[in-house]
Design goal:
It is globular, with a radius of gyration of 19 Å. The chain has eight helices and ten strands.
C-alpha cells in the first residue's frame, strides 16, 4: 500500500460538559458525552522512501508548521522505530477554536491511517497511548464511537447497546471569533462543583441533559457566543456551547430558517455518526 486518500477526520460535539472538581495539580475533573458528527476534515497520505514527514495545506487554510498532524506522525515513528516517511495533504474544513476537536481528530485519523499505511498493526490501546501524549481529546477519536468521558478526559466509555445514541440532526454555528481554552479554565468564576452524574441519568434524556459549565464564562469572554445562543433560542431550539470553543449547536427535528443569521457565522446542518469512519481500520481482535 503506497497511499490513502480522502481520509476523514470527524468533529465532535459535547452534549453536555460538567466540571465536577479540580485536582491538586490544577487539572479539572469533568463529565461529558462526546458525540461524533459528519462534519470533517479530509487528509491524504502518500508513503515516501525516506523517513521524512511533510505536510501540505491544500485549500488555503494554513496550519502551524508543527501542528498535531505532523506531531502525530513523528510520535508514531518514535514509538515504533518505523523508518518509513509520509507526505500528508490536509483539506481543513473544521473551524479552529470551535470546541469541536478538529486538531485532535486530525491527529487520531493520522495515527489510524499511518498504522495502516506503514503496516504497524498497533492495537487501539497502543494508539490511544500515543494519542494521549498529543492531547487529551485524541484518545476519544481513536475509540471509534461516541462516548461518556470522565476523569480529566482519559476515562472513555463508548456508548453502545442500550446506551447508544439515537440518530439526530443538529445545527452547528461557529461565529467568526474563536475562544482559547486556557482563558476559560483559568477564570475564577468557572463553576467547578457540579454533582457527578451516571450514564443512566443521561440516557433518560439524551439531547436535553445537563449543561456546559464553561458556557457562562465563555459568553463573558466572547459575546458572540451568547449572540449565537440567543439566535438559536429565537428559533425555539435548545442551544448549547460545545467544548471550550465558540461553536454552539442545537438538535433539530425540521428545517429551520437560516436567512436571518449573520453572514460571518459558519453554519452547518449535521447528524451524529454511529461509529468513526475509520473504526474498522483497527482489527477488533486487537482490542
Amino acid at each position: 500500500m503506497h497511499s490513502l486518500y480522502d481520509v476523514p477526520a470527524p468533529a465532535k460535539l459535547n452534549l453536555f460538559l460538567h466540571i465536577t472538581g479540580r485536582r491538586p495539580d490544577g487539572y479539572h475533573l469533568l463529565e461529558s458525552v462526546f458525540m461524533l458528527i459528519d462534519w470533517h476534515d479530509v487528509l491524504h497520505f502518500e508513503r515516501t522512501a525516506s523517513s521524512q514527514i511533510s505536510r501540505e495545506d491544500l485549500n488555503g487554510v494554513a496550519l502551524p508548521a508543527d501542528d498535531l498532524i505532523t506531531r502525530a506522525a513523528r510520535a508514531l515513528q518514535q514509538a515504533t522505530g518505523c523508518s518509513q516517511g509520509v507526505h500528508i495533504g490536509i483539506e481543513k474544513q473544521l473551524p479552529a477554536q470551535a470546541g469541536m476537536g478538529g486538531g485532535s481528530s486530525d491527529a487520531a485519523s493520522t495515527l489510524m491511517a499511518l498504522n495502516r499505511l506503514w503496516d504497524l498493526k498497533l492495537s487501539r490501546q497502543e494508539l490511544q497511548g500515543i494519542g494521549l501524549t498529543l492531547g487529551a481529546d485524541v484518545p476519544f477519536f481513536l475509540c471509534g464511537r461516541s462516548a461518556w468521558v470522565s476523569g480529566i478526559g482519559e476515562v472513555i466509555t463508548p456508548l453502545t447497546g442500550g446506551h447508544a445514541l439515537p440518530t439526530q440532526r443538529f445545527v452547528v454555528i461557529k461565529p467568526e471569533q474563536g475562544l482559547e481554552t486556557a482563558r476559560i479554565f483559568s477564570s475564577e468564576s468557572l463553576k467547578r462543583d457540579t454533582k457527578p452524574a451516571i450514564v443512566s441519568d443521561f440516557a433518560a434524556n439524551h439531547f436535553g441533559f445537563g449543561r456546559n459549565d464553561l458556557q457562562p464564562v465563555a459568553e463573558g469572554l466572547q459575546p458572540e457566543v451568547k449572540k449565537v445562543r440567543r439566535w438559536l433560542e429565537s428559533q425555539k431550539l435548545h442551544a448549547t456551547m460545545t467544548g471550550s470553543g465558540s461553536a454552539v449547536f442545537a438538535p433539530i427535528t425540521q428545517n429551520i430558517d437560516l436567512g436571518s443569521a449573520p453572514d460571518s457565522w459558519q453554519i452547518r446542518i449535521c447528524k451524529n455518526l454511529e461509529e468513526h469512519p475509520l473504526h474498522s481500520w483497527i482489527p477488533e481482535n486487537k482490542l
